[in-house]
Design goal:
mainly alpha, 394 residues, single chain
């Protein structure tokens, strides 16, 4: 009887629900205790939401991209005040912590749920979702003076990272299944990133590029059948048209508004240039380590390194053409993760504010999402005593 209960298909998902419920309850208890209203960037998101909802109730509705402050896009309202504006900032703070967790958990399930419906696979999927939603980046509450992350509640950086990971998950699932629907969903989410932060333009273009590149890698596979080659070519043509249409329209609308106007872009570049000039002389490997540790912790990088070694060791065993685990598909995912991580390092050190590691955080999270199918596949082919503490349940 106990074994049947432990092997029930809903139990892993119930564990994840319990974890998220616990986090939601404890976070809300902490939020209720604060009397400090939004400060710094959070003040601008607060004001954006106020103007957004006032605009909807106005007789003459204006373009939300042109509402003050124009440097903050209207997509932030989805997190700050999605159901209407009021002066109570506590729910806003709570959503800035909890919404990113929901996005990350959903991303893990979107990219990892397509595959064998084994008990151990369900447990591994739930445990990965719990692990990624326990990273330090999601739990910066009040602003602390010596916090190296630059994060606090009320900011949209983690929400932005969650949406970007959802977009990456949908695109990686499209790569594996050659699904146009998942590609469209991923493109819409990538386009939405631009409506959350200006850096979303970089994320959007990056995700489109890695999807296209990974699909070309799949097409170039040595053992690709003629039928699969035809499907991949059709996906390349149709997908490129969809991605260009969705993301091109998004960029065009933003560029035609005050949001991504020449003035705002110049202002952003000048601000980043000043911050880089101030921090570049004092940047050391030790400082970079402490900054990254404040958002990713110590376990996350070690786990990625460990799974990289395991993937190499079990590379031949994780390939399964019947489940679309051909070498070209796997290499496409690995290459996507590598490009995203490399781009993140460049964006953080050469383009954005070096003192703010929150600009780097989305990229390693996206890279992790890209290789979740490989992580799950490695856990499936490993001996049960090595793969997971719950593997025997399968």
């Amino acid at each position: 009887m106990i074994t049947r209960i432990l092997r029930a298909s809903f139990l892993p998902h119930l564990l994840l629900i319990c974890w998220l419920t616990f986090v939601a309850f404890t976070t809300w208890q902490h939020v209720k205790k604060t009397d400090l209203p939004p400060i710094f960037d959070a003040t601008e998101y607060f004001l954006k939401a106020k103007n957004f909802w006032a605009n909807l109730h106005d007789r003459r509705i204006h373009n939300p991209l042109n509402l003050e402050p124009t440097f903050r896009p209207p997509g932030t309202v989805v997190m700050s005040y999605p159901f209407g504006f009021n002066t109570d900032f506590h729910p806003y703070f709570f959503r800035s912590i909890f919404f990113p967790l929901l996005c990350m958990a959903a991303a893990v399930y979107v990219v990892g749920s397509h595959g064998p419906n084994k008990g151990s696979t369900r447990w591994n999927l739930a445990l990965l979702a719990i692990f990624v939603t326990s990273l330090p980046t999601f739990y910066h509450f009040e602003r602390v003076t010596d916090d190296n992350s630059g994060l606090c509640w009320g900011l949209v950086d983690n929400f932005f990272a969650g949406i970007a990971c959802l977009a990456a998950a949908a695109l990686m699932r499209s790569l594996k299944t050659l699904s146009l629907r998942w590609l469209i969903a991923g493109s819409l989410l990538a386009g939405f990133c631009v409506l959350v932060k200006p850096a979303g333009a970089v994320i959007m273009l990056l995700l489109s590029a890695v999807w296209f590149m990974a699909l070309l890698v799949r097409l170039a596979g040595a053992n690709v059948s003629s039928d699969e080659r035809t499907q991949v070519v059709k996906m390349l043509v149709r997908g490129s048209l969809c991605v260009t249409g969705i993301e091109g329209t998004t960029l065009a609308l933003c560029r035609a508004s005050h949001y991504l106007s020449t003035t705002n872009i110049a202002y952003g570049k000048d601000a980043m240039r000043l911050l880089r000039a101030e921090w570049a002389p004092s940047l050391t490997p030790g400082l970079m380590y402490w900054q990254i540790r404040s958002v990713l912790g110590s376990v996350f990088p070690c786990m990625l390194a460990a799974f990289a070694v395991l993937a190499i060791a079990y590379w031949k065993r994780i390939q399964d053409r019947q489940a679309n685990w051909a070498p070209s598909v796997l290499w496409g995912m690995v290459l996507s993760a590598a490009v995203c991580l490399t781009t993140g390092v460049w964006f953080w050190l050469a383009f954005s504010a070096i003192s703010q590691v929150r600009y780097f955080t989305p990229f390693p999270l996206i890279a992790f999402v890209c290789v979740i199918p490989i992580v799950l596949r490695v856990l499936e082919v490993m001996p049960r005593w090595q793969s997971s503490p719950f593997a025997w349940l399968g």
